[in-house]
Each structure stands twice: as C-alpha cells, then as structure tokens.
Specification:
Number of strands of chain A: 5
CATH topology of chain A: Thiol Ester Dehydrase, Chain A
Helix content of chain A: 25-40%
Order of helices and strands of chain A: EHHHHEEEEH
Number of helices of chain A: 5
Largest sheet of chain A: 5 strands, antiparallel
Strand order of the largest sheet of chain A: 1-3-4-5-2
Oligomer: homodimer
Distance between the termini of chain A: 22 Å
CATH superfamily of chain A: Hotdog Thioesterase
Number of domains of chain A: 1
CATH architecture of chain A: Roll
Chain lengths: 161, 161
Amino acid sequence: MHDGLWFEDLTIGRTFRSGVVVVDPDRVKSFAAEFDPQPFHLDEAAALGSRFGGLVASGWHTAAMTMKLLVTSELRIAGGLIGLGVEEIQWPAPVRPGDVLHAESQVLESRPSRSGAPQGVVVIGTTTLNQDGTVVQKMTAKLLVPRRPVPDVDAASRGSS
Amino acid sequence: MHDGLWFEDLTIGRTFRSGVVVVDPDRVKSFAAEFDPQPFHLDEAAALGSRFGGLVASGWHTAAMTMKLLVTSELRIAGGLIGLGVEEIQWPAPVRPGDVLHAESQVLESRPSRSGAPQGVVVIGTTTLNQDGTVVQKMTAKLLVPRRPVPDVDAASRGSS
C-alpha cells in the first residue's frame, strides 16, 4: 500500500501544519558562504551596517528550510512532493539566527490532468512564520499529485474465488 | 566608491551571463538529506524506479546554485542582490549529478520608487541551462536596487576652492 495523500485527498481549503525548525546561526553563514555570499548573510559586523541591521538568513535558505518542514509535515503526498514550479515567493520579514520557524499550508486549487493521465495539479499556498507569528515567507507552489488508483475489481474477485 | 551597478545601469533588455557550476553528486544527496529528503534526490537505486528514472537535484538546490551563479556573475548590484520576491520559478527539466550549469539574465522591467526613495525595483528574468543548452530552471525575480547617488556639487566646489 502507498502511504500518503492522493489527488482526491487534497480538497480545496484543506490545511496542513508542519513541525518546527530552529535557525542555526552557523548554518545561516555556511549556507550563505556556499550559495549566497553577501555580507549581510555572512558576518554580524558587516550585517549591522546593512539595511537589515543584523545578520539575516538568505531567502533561499528560508525556502530550503520550508521545503524540509513541508516534506516532514502532515502534507505527505503519495509518490512524493514533486513541484512543477513556484508561482510566487515573498520574503516580507527577515529570518534571524535563533528564530523558530514553522509552516502552514492550504490547498488553493485542484485540477485533474486534462490528458486523462492518472494525476492532477494541486496549487498549495504555504506561509512560513517565526516564533512571534510574523510571516517570513509566503509561497504558492504547483504540485503534481497522483490520483488514487481504482481498485482492480476483477483481481479482487479472482482472489476470492 | 561603491563597486557595482545602480538602478540607472539596469536598463530594460540588458543581459548578464554567469560563470559555471558543476553539480556535485555527493552534494545533491547531502543537500537533499538536509532540506528535501525524498528518495529520488537521495539514492540512485530508489531514483531509478521513480518518475525521474535516476537521481535528480532538488529544485531548491538548483535555485540555490543559481543564486550563487548570480551573486558571482556580471550582475553585481551596488548594495547587494536583495530580492523582494520571486514572481515565478519553473523546473522544466531535471538537474543530474555532473551537469554543468550556467545562468543567463535579462532586465525585464524597471521602475523607480513611487515614494521618492533613492531606489527602484528591477525585474530580472534568469534562465539556468545545462551543458546541452537545456533549460533546467526559469525564474523571474524582483530586486531592490539603489539609485546612483547625485554628486554633491557644493562639496566638489568647496574641495576645489
């Protein structure tokens, strides 16, 4: 048996909640060193003089931490969390070292495949919040989700004969 | 003197090109283990049986590698590459271990701040391509860019007097 949610389970308006992640100060810097080497992500002293007034996580680090929250949340999709794309990401407030983040998701749209393939596209809105309830990221993503397999009635009757 | 491009430099249609990054197989797995722990990003054998037919990088890893390409590209903005948000990301083709990626960017829109603040919003389209010229990511991002400071004529004349 597949463990996870099918297209049919992701009804519009359904909500999902994640666990939490603590933003590790060293990881803020090492992520930035590898992927987003800018002073306000790398160095406290330089960040103090920047528009952020202190060290902040790269938006891409926040996006990656949010993905981890989603993959390990209640939103467990049969076949995996396969993103076709992102329609929008906003970072309305900075993420600081030591912040405790969680994600809240809601199904916004749901449409079966036009080609008749056994899958559909589901649009999910995900908000990432810190320990004060401040929204640090808003994202809308399109996922590819398989349909629930139709039971094979013939096989079932063969099995019982 | 500030080293970098100002709002006035980012004229619509201007293009920028990045260097290259080689997608490291071990990093594909370790990034996934930390941020996107799904079988098709973690394990060759499991990935073979997935819809991808082999190991693929997380889309968030591709986005992060693209950010590194941008930060170190010709697109060096005065004050840093500060993203207000992303209007769209698509991952039209998988990124495989060993791929060699580069990014090509173009200025799509440019509007000065309505509030009269010395900055503007610039919309940049960035395409990430592999060694075969296949597009693996398309992204449109909104950046906050400072205006070129107006020279202080009085100070200059004081200096020369």
